[in-house]
Design goal:
With 276 residues, the chain is an all-alpha fold. The chain has two domains: 73 residues, no CATH class; 136 residues, no CATH class. Helix content is 34%, strand content 3%. The chain has eight helices and four strands, in the order H-H-E-E-H-E-E-H-H-H-H-H. Strand 1 and strand 2 form a beta hairpin. Helix 4 crosses helix 7. It starts with a helix and ends in a 10-residue tail after the last helix. It binds zinc ion (2 copies). One zinc ion (ZN) binds next to helix 3. The site of one zinc ion has 6 residues, from helix 3.
Length: 276
């Protein structure tokens, strides 16, 4: 049996680290056999193409690369802005709005014009020429706090980063969901943050990993600010009421570091007294 690592003369663990499955243990604990992988943007694989705009890119990085290549972190949902170039990532061709499918360039092309990896597979527009939009400084600093947790693999006294990411993703879900419990959560949460509640984030709930990047950017920011503030206020100044514990129903058990906060915020619903 010939192994890829032998052919490429690269260490096997180096190749394993290039796979999306290498996020297991850092962003989530166990890869499920079905459904979305938490934090990894879906690309909607269909035969030899991709139907969903889950591949984001930094136009500046690709432009400045001596040999352009696609970073692994560009598939992660919290990574909405490039931290090196301080610009927003894009997830579609600005000319024809196709998803970015770099490997398609090489499939079924029988002419001598070998396309570049940076070209749109559909209209051949060179994506490095796409317009760049600067990141907001306050958003970028929050995002960097999150990616530092991812890189370190742990956070302060929480031990495992996956325990942090589980909670962050659930808070994002609460800010996005249209279920009535989550509406109550949002009202209280914005009040708690002292922010004006924005118009709805969207309509029907779909998986966090297929939402457009501009929506994820807002969700990441508000959810991180919320968690940070929960951490910094004492029990008595907290004004979250009317929130049912069921917003954390997916957890069994609730990650231990968040248990106290979950109980004081989400279980203290006077309307649900005695219901558990
Ligand atoms: Zn970049
Ligand atoms: Zn195009």
């Amino acid at each position: 049996m010939i192994r890829i690592s032998d052919v490429l003369e690269v260490n096997l663990s180096k190749i394993q680290n290039m796979l999306l499955s290498s996020f297991e243990g850092t962003l989530y604990f166990k890869q499920k056999g079905f459904g979305a992988t938490p934090w990894v943007r879906k690309v909607g694989v269909y035969h030899r193409t991709r139907k969903i705009k889950g591949q984001a890119i930094c136009v500046s990085c690709l432009k400045n690369d001596p040999v352009p290549y696609f970073r692994q972190i560009w598939r992660l949902n919290f990574y909405t802005d490039c931290e090196s170039c301080r610009v927003k990532m894009i997830q579609e061709c600005p000319v024809c709005n196709s998803p970015i499918v770099f490997f398609r360039n090489y499939i079924g092309k029988f002419d001598n014009l070998i396309p570049r990896i940076t070209q749109c597979h559909n209209c051949r527009f060179d994506l490095v020429k796409a317009r760049k939009e600067r990141s907001s400084v306050i958003h970028l600093s929050k995002q960097m706090e999150i990616s530092n947790i991812y890189r370190a693999g742990f956070v302060n006294n929480i031990q495992y980063s996956a325990l942090y990411f589980d909670v962050l993703r659930q808070i994002m879900y609460c800010f996005r969901s249209v279920y009535s419990n989550s509406k109550l959560f949002r009202q209280s949460a914005y009040k708690f943050l002292n922010w004006e509640e924005p118009e709805s984030f969207g309509s029907r709930f779909s998986s966090m990993e297929v939402l457009p990047i501009h929506e994820i950017r807002r969700l990441i920011y508000v959810s991180k600010c919320f968690l940070d503030k929960l951490d910094s206020v004492n029990y008595s100044s907290l004004q979250l009421t009317g929130i049912s514990s069921s917003v954390f129903r997916d957890f069994d058990p609730i990650p231990y570091w968040f248990e106290k906060n979950a109980k004081r915020c989400f279980y203290q619903n006077p309307h649900l007294k005695g219901s558990g």
